[in-house]
Amino acid sequence: MMIWKQISEIFKKPVTSERHKEGKERFLKKYQSFQTLLSENNVVLELMADIEEKLSSNFPVDRQEILGQINEIAKSVRKIIDHLNQISKDKYAVLNERLNEIHSKIENFLTKKHKIPISSYTKPFDEINKGMIDMFGNKNANLGEIRNSLKIPTPEGFAISTFAFKKFMEHNRLLEKIEKTLSELCAEDMEVLNNKSRKIQDEIAGAQIPEDLEEEILNAYRRLCNKCGYEVKVSVRSSAVHEDGEFSFAGQYSTFLNVPSDQILLKYKEVVASLYNPIGIFYYKTKGLYEHEMAMAVCIVQMIDARCAGVMYTRDPNNPETDTMIISSVRGLGKPVVEGAVAPETYIMSRSIFQIIQKNIPAQKTMLVSKPDADVEVISLSDNTIGIPCLIDEHIKTLAEYAIAIEKHYACPQDIEWAVGKDNMPYILQTRPLNISIKEEISRYIPEVIKGYNILIDKGIIACKGIDFGRAYIVRQEEDLENFPEGAVLIAKHTSAKFVTVMKKASAIVTDIGAATVHMATVAREFQIPTIVDTEVATEVIQNGLEITVDAINCLVYEGRVKELSEFSRKKERYFKRIKPLKDIDPIIQWVIPLNLVNPDDERFRPELCETFHDIARFAHQKAMHEMFKISKELPEDVEAVRLVAGIPLDIYIIDLGEGIEGMSEEFRPDHIRSIPLKAFLRGLTSLTWPEPRHVDVKGFLGMMARTASIPESELEQMGEKSFTFISREYMNFSIRLGYHLSVVEAYTGENINDNYIRFLFKGGGADMKRRLRRVRLVSEVLKNFDFHVKTTEDSLEAIITKYKRAHLEDRLEILGRLTVYTKQMDAVMYDDATTELYLEQFINEHVKL
């Protein structure tokens, strides 16, 4: 009753216009903070949805862009916390601590030093495998893997480790100096970049190789010569840690061909120096890598005096879905192919039967060859080679077999360099992932409509792409999730983050209401569950238990199992699938997007248990609504209000927070109202004839007398007092006193579905407890029929509905208005349960537009 005592005092005490203004300003600031919080919450949800879409797509992902979006999310979450604390008078300051802790985890992860493992300075290819990337880089590790695991021929050679790089750089005190120089460098300022790069490379070229490292490199070379049986000339090639992996670094670092023994140490330093050449620095910076993550291992590879050489793509990058691969070839060394210096011979091959489908043999007039002493040179070719392939069919077939074996081993398309030596033996020189997008079959082959099947739904919004099928399981209330069957399709009126509890079981999700940026859509993308929202009719046209097929590519739901689409189900591949993972992005995502705080009624729904940015945003959004709902409890004595004359037995006063009413007057009528939720609620309040005093039986009368006797006289005086409402164009908080019971209706009806909600509080009555409980049950059943989540405690009721379109909430506000009129003093006539059912049926049939 205290709230009504406060209200009464407001209208009894004279106040100055200046104090009126100050009081209104305080409420206006609180409402503006609420609006800004809602706006920033939408920014967060949209950014998270975009990140999830990128990470679950088949297309290359820009690491720096993702990190930039995560940074923007952090900024918006900070603003959300600030505005929540402005609304709540710093009640949730602990959220700043949680945000700082999460942000620190991300920063520490990104800036932690790349630990170069301790290893030997060198290791022969015979002893290297793909698990040694951190020690020897991708190029060395791949050569060792192909050689030792697949038994595919590669040249002899050895690797110089990243630990050797570390020792070399530390010996000359270069690492910290370089990191400091480059960490502050803007990659787009090419002039400064070139100058700093040149200085760094000059310092490395003039640096001294530690004596023990120099000795080990030369000893490894001698062992290589002993194995080959002659003094080997080598190619000295880069094998940086990030090269030829997630990032190709193609052509960024130095390679030296046909190097004699007396130049190996010199070329080693030049390859190390190329780690800091201008294009190398620009590349790794634009990919979001840091100086401390860069380390250079080096390949020392037996030089193949090639008859011909080239490149193989295990997929056609222009038509990656087809059963074809490409082999390119030139006479001599393959460097002109990778540099694009000549038009190579091109063979389009069948991947399955290794048959040439198409070939092109251009005229090659020159070729690159090894010089007798050192280095390479270009020589002219005689005319009698024109039009004659440099690759014979036997070598083509062998290379194709090698290529498919390598692709299968690495489980992704490959970009492979090869050479055929003067010994007529094909060798693999390197392999790395072929960075192309293999479009899923569902986006290429599936027609827009499969004929011969009944289409149940052909509209909505795709929240997560995919195709799957199962029996429909309609979730009407939270308890239905407890019995959700494995493989079912979840059908619901609206979206709910609580659906996460069954997403490992669900084949697909279809809802009447929703948007691609709601919490559930984000979680659905994490689980890769085909999801269509905003269909408007799913719960009406889909029967519980009906087998259906969900095509979340063409936004269709079919009756029955569409056998033509069965092959496109991705059940086994779903759980947090990443088609192109970014190795240091996925660990960061765990602190950004997952939603752990799902249920506001759960005891774990506390600020100190927020583990992600998403948790904080979700918690703050929920608590902001809660704080705004309590706005009426904070009424100051100096707030300005105007009277609304609506032709109903309520004395209504309005506090306008902005664009809620039109014009200036001491009294307003409904046609002056611009507040969307208040207009809708008033339509309900004014659409029914307000009831005369109910006919009350003896027990009801005695109950009311007893109830009246238990209320203090000071509070009895307030039962005829004024009702009041805070409004703006999109917001309403309306407190109503009707005799012995209190109602509070709060609503936000904006354009963004994520912001929208109605909260309703109903408490009290004049009759005995049994009759009051019956009226609460009637109100509860009505609200459940219209998608409200309802919680009752004795004779009080709280209900909420969220994330519906504005028009849907306007309809429900009108229903709440009618329900308010209909249930006035009804507790007094709630004789028994049968009477309750009668009144419930009467309200639905006579006063609700179906």
Assembly form of the protein? single chain
Number of DSSP E strands: 30
Q: Which runs of at least 5 residues are low in confidence (pLDDT < 50)? A: 1-16, 438-444, 572-581, 694-720
How far apart the termini lie comes to 37 Å
| Rounded radius of gyration (Å) | 37 Å
- The pLDDT mean sits at 83
User: Strand order across the biggest sheet?
Assistant: 24-22-23-25-26-27-28-30-29
**Basic shape:** elongated
Characterize the largest beta sheet: strand count, sense, and whether it forms a barrel: 9 strands, mixed
Helical proportion?
25-40%
The count of helical stretches stands at 24
How would you describe what is shown here?
With 850 residues, the protein is α+β, with helices and mostly antiparallel strands. The protein is built from 24 helices and 30 strands. The strands form five sheets. The chain has a nine-stranded mixed beta sheet with strand order 24-22-23-25-26-27-28-30-29, covered by helices on one side. Strand 8 (345-350) and strand 9 (356-360) form a beta hairpin. Helix 2 (17-55) packs antiparallel against helix 3 (63-88) and helix 3 (63-88) runs antiparallel to helix 4 (94-111). The longest helix has 39 residues, at 17-55. The radius of gyration is 37 Å and the shape is elongated.
Q: How would you briefly describe this protein structure?
A:
With 850 residues, the chain is α+β, with helices and mostly antiparallel strands. It contains 24 helices and 30 strands.
Write the layout of secondary structure elements.
Layout: H1 2-12, H2 17-55, H3 63-88, H4 94-111, E1 122-124, H5 133-148, E2 157-160, H6 162-171, H7 175-183, H8 190-205, H9 211-228, E3 234-240, E4 255-259, H10 264-273, H11 278-286, E5 296-302, E6 306-313, E7 324-331, H12 335-339, E8 345-350, E9 356-360, E10 366-370, E11 376-380, H13 393-410, E12 414-421, E13 426-433, H14 441-444, E14 455-457, E15 461-464, E16 467-475, E17 489-492, E18 508-511, H15 519-527, E19 531-533, H16 538-541, E20 547-551, E21 556-559, H17 586-589, H18 613-629, E22 642-644, E23 652-656, E24 667-668, H19 676-687, H20 698-709, H21 713-716, E25 723-727, E26 731-738, E27 741-748, E28 757-764, H22 769-785, E29 789-793, E30 796-802, H23 806-822, H24 833-847
Parallel strand pairs: 16-17, 17-18, 18-19, 22-24, 23-25
Antiparallel strand pairs: 1-2, 2-5, 3-4, 3-5, 6-7, 6-12, 7-8, 8-9, 10-11, 12-13, 14-21, 15-19, 16-20, 20-21, 22-23, 25-26, 26-27, 27-28, 28-30, 29-30
Helix pairs in contact: 2-3, 2-15, 2-18, 3-4, 3-18, 8-10, 19-23, 22-24
